[in-house]
Design brief:
Layout: H1 3-12, H2 15-23, H3 31-54, H4 58-81
Helix pairs in contact: 1-3, 3-4
Length: 84
């Protein structure tokens, strides 16, 4: 996957909360929420791109993928509901 396509896909995932925000009263995202989500998704994309490009050991690469997704989800959950 080309780098530009990967970042386009990651940023297009923000359409899901935008549709929820426009169609429901239960989703309350402000402009700052979209900026933070965009930054988080772009950092995740950079980590995935760097590990895909520079790490040659496939098991270490998959471990970095799992670590990146876990940190992303924990950070997202903390920002969403404040579990920590």
């Amino acid at each position: 996957m080309k780098t530009s396509n990967m970042f386009l896909f990651l940023n297009s995932m923000l359409i899901i909360p935008l549709i929820g925000n426009l169609s429901s009263n239960e989703v309350h995202w402000g402009p700052g929420d979209y900026v933070i989500a965009c930054c988080m998704l772009n950092v995740l994309g950079l980590v995935l791109y760097a590990s895909n490009r520079y790490v040659t050991n496939i098991y270490f690469r998959y471990g970095l993928y799992a670590l990146a997704f876990t940190i992303f989800l924990l950070f997202w959950a903390e920002l969403a509901v404040g579990i920590f």
